[in-house]
What does this fold into?
Amino acid sequence: MWCIAQIPDTVKLESSAKVTAILKIDQGYTVDYTTPHGRYQATTRYLIGADGANSIVRKAIYPKHRIRTYLSIQEWYQVSDSRPFYASIFDPEATDCYSWALYKNDYLLFGGAYPQTGARQRFENQKQKLIDHGYPLQHPIKRQACLVLRPEKLSDIVTGKDNAYLIGEAAGWVSPS
It folds into this structure.
């Protein structure tokens, strides 16, 4: 909310919009988007992509750039013990990335990033290993999943060009959690 409060009154804010197309023009970019009220087009001199691993902005300014994309799966478990705890789990049978377990308030979270092919089975197999080691992962109350980037080399990170800029996962930066 603080960030949104910093936007000057001269900027039109569309909080429930979905970008459908971006086109480079001489003056900058046109951005086609939809809202619950219809379809619109805006023109801008600068474009900033902070739209995550599946960034439409990155795809528009780097159409041939490819980066490995994994599926992150995380489950939440109600627990009575929530001591400060964080575990990074490296299991090459499950993924060449890593997984995590951590306490957050009254929950234990377990998740990981897996190659998309067979991701769910890899997650379940790894979870069973942790259950066998005493982790209380039998009864999830919530499951979340999203695409995450898995850069292999520095050139996988792209931060922008031609007055279009990428930040966060849109650029290829990966959060460790």
In short: The chain has three helices and eleven strands. The mean pLDDT is 92. The chain has two domains: 2-52+162-171, 69-149. The first strand starts at residue 18 and ends at 25.
